[in-house]
Every structure is written in C-alpha cells, then in structure tokens.
Amino acid sequence: ENTENPVDSKSIKNLEPKVRHGSESMDCGISLDNSYKMDHPKMGLCIIINNKNFHKSTGMASWSGTHVDAANLRETFMNLKYEVRNKNDLLHEEVMELMRNVSKEDHSKRNSFVCVLLSHGEEEIIFETNGPIDLKKITSFFRGDCCRSLTGKPTFFITQACRGIEPDCGIEMDRGVDDGMACHNIPVEADLLRAYSTDGSWFIQSLCAMLEQCTHKLAFMHILTQVNQKVATEFESFSLDAAFNAKKQIPCIVSMLTKELYFYH
Ligand SMILES: *[C@@H]1O[C@H](CO)[C@@H](O)[C@H](O)[C@H]1NC(C)=O
C-alpha cells in the first residue's frame, strides 16, 4: 500500500541525525522555500481593538496607556503595508459582530489577517467594555473552514491583557448569544498564531520595536522569540508594593503556523 507520503517520511529520516549533531539551521532537510506566499496584492487587514473604558458593572478600572500602544501598532502595521482599522471601547456584542463581518469579507487578494486586542483579561479571556469574551470565539470566525478566503493564509491574534483587578467570580462566560457559527467544534486551526501577554505594555512596545527592526531579515516566529527575550531581559515592574515590585513577565507564543512567515516576498 502506498499510503505514506514518501517525501515526508524521507525528510523526517534526514532530519534526525543532523539535528542531533547541531548542524546549522536549514541544513536539515527542510525546504528553504517553505514559507507563506506573500505575493497577493495586499498584505491584509489589521484590526486593532482597544478597550480602555469599561462598563461600571464589570468592576474594571479604566485602563490608561493603551491608546499609545494602539497608535504604535497602527504605525507599525501601516509600515508593513497592512490596512489598519482601529476600534475603541467595543461591547461584547460589537466585537462579535465586527469579527463576523470581517470574517465574511473577501480576503482572496490579501496575504494574511491580523487582529490585536488590547484590554483587561487573562490568557484565554479578553474583557470587552461590558464583560468577558472567550478568545476562542473570536478566533474561530477565522478558521480555515469558516473563512474560506483565508484558508492556508497566516492569521494572527495578538492580545495584551492587563490582569488588573481580578474579575468577580461567577461571571458567565457563555452569555447565550448566538454567535452565528456553524462550525464550533472542528479543530481546523492550522495557520493560526496567537501571541499574548498579560501585564503592562512591554510586550506591544517590544513587538513594535522588533517588527520595525527585523521584518526585512527575520521570520515572524524568530521576531516573536526576540520579543520574548527583550521583554524577559529588559523589563521589570516597579511598584511601592513589594508584592508587585520587580516582577518579570514573559509573553507567550502559540503557533499553529505550518510555514515560515516573512513580511515581504
Ligand atoms: C456588520 O455588517 C452589517 C451588515 O453589512 C452592518 O449593518 C453592521 O454595521 C456591521 N457591523 C459592524 C460592527 O461592523
């Protein structure tokens, strides 16, 4: 039976001994041109949602400083030739509607999709101005099976959520809103990358700086690794409260990318 892909099994065999000997990168059976095609006419959309003011019922303090991050990101992604759309202070329902609308746009002439969320939150939860939203609900609009014109194209979700105040226990995660998704449970998340950080704005500052310095030479994953290093080594919190002083943070990268991504072609 010839069910195996001979190319795949061969390259895996080639990979092993060379990796063990610590050979130079790319000399390990991986094709050099295994990167996303970035030759569509447009780079794509970059949606930046900046939630700064929160509804009283959430108990969230207004969160200053993120407008600087939002402006910084706008500049950075415009320089990378993205079509940037900034949105401020959206309600839960508005975010879902915006994401649904954007996922229904025709992305066929675009290389990629970027969504940045700046808010209060946790790793998997982002606060909209009137309550929490599960990030999975946002990302699933853009999965290959839901948004066909982005199938096989890299899709990034970058979130910076300040933990700030602990949310009240008993917040209902599922608000029973019909999100209009036909395909909740199919794990088709290839080509999706999430990068997130949960404290302050060091992550976004570093990300913008590294994207400006390195996009002409490094793949996106390498840039994000540099960002992690920068945040881990250069930043430390300062607070008069000893419990919050001299704290380190490290952003997290969750990659389901299947190729290298360079912001040029
Ligand atoms: C979503 O699309 C509908 C229909 O085109 C439009 O009326 C609505 O304003 C859009 N909503 C957002 C948040 O973009």
What does this molecule look like?
The protein is an alpha/beta fold and 265 residues long. It has a single domain (42-164, 188-256), classed as Rossmann fold (3-Layer(aba) Sandwich), CATH 3.40.50.1460. It has 6 helices and 8 strands. It has helices spanning 6-20, 66-79, 92-104, 135-140, 202-214, 220-234; strands spanning 42-50, 83-88, 110-120, 125-128, 131-134, 155-162, 192-197, 252-255. The strands form 2 sheets. Strands 2-1-3-6-7-8 form a 6-stranded mixed sheet, covered by helices on one side. A two-stranded antiparallel sheet has the order 4-5. Strand 4 (125-128) and strand 5 (131-134) form a beta hairpin. Helix 2 (66-79) runs parallel beside helix 5 and helix 5 packs across helix 6. The radius of gyration is 20 Å and the shape is globular. The two termini are 39 Å apart. Residues 4-26 and 164-187 have low confidence and may be disordered. The structure holds 2-acetamido-2-deoxy-beta-D-glucopyranose. 2-acetamido-2-deoxy-beta-D-glucopyranose is lined by residues 94, 97-98, 101. 2-acetamido-2-deoxy-beta-D-glucopyranose binds at residues 94, 97-98, 101. Heterotetramer that consists of two anti-parallel arranged heterodimers, each one formed by a 17 kDa (p17) and a 12 kDa (p12) subunit. Interacts with BIRC6/bruce. Belongs to the peptidase C14A family.
How far apart the termini lie comes to: 39 Å
Q: Mind summarizing the main beta sheet? A: 6 strands, mixed
Percent helix, as a range, is 25-40%
- Mean pLDDT, to the nearest integer, reads 75
The total of beta strands comes to 8
Rg from Cα: 20 Å
Number of domains as seen in the coordinates:
1
Number of helices: 6
